[in-house]
Write a structure and sequence with these properties.
Layout lengths: L5 H9 L4 E5 L6 H12 L2 E4 L3 H6 L3 H6 L6 E4 L7 H11 L6 E5 L3 H11 L3 E5 L5 H4 L4 H7 L3 H4 L4 H22 L6 H13 L3 E2 L2 H8 L3 H13 L3 E4 L15 E4 L2 H7 L5 H5 L4 H16 L5 E6 L5 E7 L5 E6 L9 H10 L3 E6 L5 E4 L2 E5 H9 L2
Helix pairs in contact: 5-6, 8-14, 10-14, 11-14, 12-13, 16-18
Length: 383
Amino acid sequence: MIPRRKLQIVRARLDQFPAVAVLGPRQAGKTTLASTISRERAGLYLDLEDTSDREKLTDAALYLSGHEEDLVIIDEVQRAPELFQTLRVLIDKGRRHGRFLLLGPASIDLLRQSGESLAGRIAYVDLGPFNVLEVGDDEGERLWVRGGFPDSFLAESDEASTVWRESLVRTYLERDIPQLGPRVPAETLRRFWTMLAHLQGGILNASQIARSLAVDGKTVARYLDLLVDLLLVRRLPPFHANIGKRLVKSPKVYVRDSGIVHTLLGLDDRDAVLGHPVAGGSWEGFVLENLLGVAPGRVQSSYYRTIAGAEIDLVLQMPGGALWAVEIKRGLAPRLDRGFHHAREDLEPDRSFVVYPGIERYPKGDGVEVIGLAELASLLAAA
């Protein structure tokens, strides 16, 4: 089993808060992480997809009162939104840290309900798929092609990995999303998700997508919000600064897991990925997710682009106020274009990096460093 870096964070939050919610996409490893903590803390595990466990919580206050000294782990907590009010009452009756560990998707409704009922009593931890610091730099290529969902990454073959990812996509479209409430035709949502995969790392043009789907712009915004809420798509905002430049103001969009990108586009192995026009955008999204997945929580991320063409793929605003400029290149001999240099002149970042698939770190000149993904991820995690 590959150790998860977020395990230490969850332990720390349980020592600080009465309740902790671990949120993330389906099959990202939330249950496995919770099982590890349960063994450490003699926890009680309840899965709300299990009928017998749901019946135990018919009178939740009575049942949970009998486990006041246990860590109670509740999986698929979104299936019982009425439970949050009961948890608040129980927490306030006997305030202690590490009482409840809740697992679920990062849907807006779940966050709103838990936030309203458990404000000041709950901490949130996002758990995504594997990242390069967890699997090791020598497995970076496989991680990029297959994505980071554990069952996909650890599959016996590329074919088995592809079959698993296709099953995950269908599960989301046909079961999970309808259960969360939105009434979206599965085929329409798949087409939209596939369009985003083709667009990987591009500027969002909602009106163009709306015309392709024969829907209006508000519907496209609703579909996008849904996939963002479920941590399946990332919306990277533009950098805002009063620097006297005309800036591009639309967000960039990324399907967050590179393996899902490849599945949506029918790319089953490394050769197929490298032969497809999405390869560069897929690599960019992969690097972005790995960096943001290990970044401290207070790091703010954006991209920079002006109407004149100055551009930086990723701008990181560090907790102390420093700016890091990150350019992402797929080639082993990365070359920087004029737009990157112009953008650096505009922003004057404290550090500038070019991330590439190699492992050697070397200066590029003018304060720019070429660096491998794993090494930059380690620097960012320690910042």
